[in-house]
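Could you help me review a protein record that somebody else here produced? Do not assume that whoever made the record got everything right. The record follows directly below this note.
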Amino acid sequence: MSSDHYSERPVWADRAAIALLMAAALKIMANATISPALPALEASFPDVPTAAYLTRFLVSAPSLSVVLAAPLAGVAADRFGRVPLLVAGVVLFVLAGTAGAYLPDLPSILASRFILGVAVAMTMTAQVALVGDMFEGIRRSAFMGWQTAVINLSGFVFIGLAGYLAGYSPRLPFLVYGLPLLLLPLLASMAGRERASRKVVLTRGGDTGGDLPPEAGWLIRALAVGLLTLATVMLFFLMPSQLPYYLHENGFDSASATAAGLGTLTLSGGLFAFSFKRISDRSGLGMTLAFGYLVMGSGFATLALGATWGFLLTGTALVGAGYALVQPGFLLLALQVAPANRRGLVSGIVTTSMFLGQVVSPLLLTPVIQVVGFAPVFYGAAAMLCILALAALFSVRLLLQMRTTE
């Protein structure tokens, strides 16, 4: 079957697109799924002096492994193929993710989370590179909107399920990591599609869509996209890493309230992501990113106003809606600056930046919260996001100008 035939299918009717959308959902599953169980998990280890720190770090521990492994995974994806790396990553994801349900102590659970991060690095870099190989132009933009929607809506399901299971035992949410086993048959069937797509790349001289720049300067632009990504994710990750403790401190049932807050965030993001293509087509990518940052900032400012159900649900909904416009922009920019034979490596750079932001967030912001409290940090995040809105307007325009002058 020809590549042209594939390009005629709508995203929702393309089997490969469905498989890649489901694979993208592993990103949110990796970290935020266990957030509702964190306070109860900490309480289940009363004799561990460092339990408060270790349980917080369980959320971001996979991110540290991704930071180290994603560039290597990107090189492997370019050299050995995307689909084999993606399948191997899913298998490792299931094995390491479910281990927290039965491992005996916090250090061993933490070790399994580091291994989970290696699996995430494999799956995310291979998945993004495959998107670049198999989709182009308007269809690629449409896919990115769908991808953000699926990530958020699946996060709503996963976090809601984890919150329900955490009410029975803080170990049960780890079993949610077994669900990707259902994805393996779809992924294994994609090997032929990958070979066909790469033949098209070679036939067109290394450019699948006519919208990619030549080799020169691509690394500088990729690093610039990575820096913007890192700063954004560091602020966004206040939600899964700190929201449970903010709610617990203010008298909420942390498990159910966190599930409600993060569920609202992901549901809002999932619904709003469907408008990404329409907004970016009308306003341009730079303006779309800026608008997303402003919406995120208004969400953090709302959370800082007070710990009530109204502010909680409104604030998390705004953060989720804004991030639904920002995240697809990172990936589109990354694919635009990547030569076809470097898509794996550039995907690894952006993946590293995303997860480095998740690592830095609790390490940098937890001490600040302990000194000044949650509200000033939320207001500070809102101010930083306004600055990033201005940065996005100028940086995206600069990246496009650099591309067109080569």
About this structure: Residues 1-6, 205-214 have pLDDT under 50 and may be disordered. The CA atoms of residues 3 and 197 lie 7 Å apart. The longest helix spans residues 374-404. DSSP finds 18 helices and no strands in the chain.
